[in-house]
């Protein structure tokens, strides 16, 4: 459970060479609903023209019937689930964003991530005469493609991406091809799969599972893929940089049944729980999770510590994930109705409660109050990530630095604020030792305050220390 102001922005899906491509894209987006439920959209192509449907709400709200999907013709399609990190929450900003340029060439894009030089690029493009349809940074990439003097779409895309910085996993559709691209740092995941003779691209492999596709490999950092009737073409256009995979994808954002960055999410989370139990043991009768995202972390803690795992809190699954709603009033309502303690399990017990992170601390404090009211004898809070001290500018919508509880309070001060008997966080070193990849391949800026790339001042709002 992430506190109510931490959001991951988007889920991507693309498919080429499949009958009923839009229906398969719908299923892929359904599996990726956790990455954004503010809006959803699909653009398909029959080889000549686009068909499009976009709307506010979850996948089932937008694509409410088979008849709706049947109108999205073609054997190729891209889809997008959105949570707004850059750009307002409005119909105009729903992706995929479609344009016509240079003699009525058609192009549409879906983007996961945040550009860190978007302000200066937008000002420059507007000065040169560009007219923007949206307030998203994603549209900037389309304008850069349209401005490129390169003739082929893959060359125009490569040219455009040399001008942007920051995090981007991208899927594009033209009337006769699909393209995918990932930034050189690799902040956000993007995977490549096969479904019989069709090619599939998605933010997470759980989107492959739902349609029966097979995972092939990740789209590599800095790689561009072109998929058309000639097959798949891969090329790299940017110089190599040190990778900066978002460690929060493992901690929280990705589904536990997915593979990201080449590793099973469930296994990494379980190892995080093991390490947390080693670093921050507790004398307790039972260990409970904040459902559902902390379940695997908690199982790992229980396995390592020998403390019995119990279901101590029940989550209402019919209100959505707290963090994903952009309106504060809805978030506050969710916090009150989302969880309920199991009093028969908790009464008179010394408990360990495991969560994956603490952001502002307000929700955690309410949960602790519920546990106290349920008759717990002691409450020991354990967090399977380090204290969050700085915002993210690479695709996670975080509170300001001042709103992050760990940026201004010590662990002891946070313990007193939460009202728990003890509080323990996982160390940065312990966290980075759990994935199989080298620890230097991960971005930990939100825990360390050290950013892998430059951030424009009007985006960062405060001085940044670069790695």
Quick tags:
2 domains; 467 residues; Glutamine Phosphoribosylpyrophosphate, subunit 1, domain 1; single chain; Rossmann fold; 18 helices; disordered C terminus; six-stranded antiparallel beta sheet
Describe the fold and architecture:
This protein has 467 residues and is an alpha+beta fold. The chain folds into two domains: 7-243, Glutamine Phosphoribosylpyrophosphate, subunit 1, domain 1, CATH 3.60.20.10; 264-440, Rossmann fold (3-Layer(aba) Sandwich). It is built from 18 helices and 28 strands. The strands form eight sheets. The protein has a seven-stranded antiparallel sheet. Strands 6-7-8-9-13-14 form a six-stranded antiparallel sheet, covered by helices on one side. It has a five-stranded parallel sheet with strand order 19-18-22-23-25, with helices on both faces. Helix 5 crosses helix 6. The chain is globular. The model is unreliable at 321-325 and 461-467 (pLDDT under 50).
Topology, element by element:
Elements: E1 7-8, E2 10-16, H1 21-31, E3 39-45, E4 50-56, H2 59-62, H3 66-70, E5 76-82, E6 97-101, E7 105-112, H4 118-127, H5 138-147, H6 153-161, E8 169-174, E9 177-182, E10 191-195, E11 198-202, H7 206-209, E12 214-218, E13 223-228, E14 231-236, E15 245-246, H8 247-253, E16 259-260, E17 263-264, H9 265-279, E18 286-289, H10 295-305, E19 308-309, E20 313-315, H11 328-337, E21 339-341, H12 343-346, E22 350-355, H13 362-373, E23 378-383, E24 396-397, H14 405-408, H15 411-418, E25 422-425, H16 428-432, E26 442-443, H17 445-448, E27 450-451, H18 457-460, E28 465-466
Parallel strand pairs: 15-26, 18-19, 18-22, 22-23, 23-25, 27-28
Antiparallel strand pairs: 1-24, 2-5, 2-11, 3-4, 3-5, 6-7, 7-8, 8-9, 9-13, 10-11, 10-12, 13-14, 16-17, 20-21
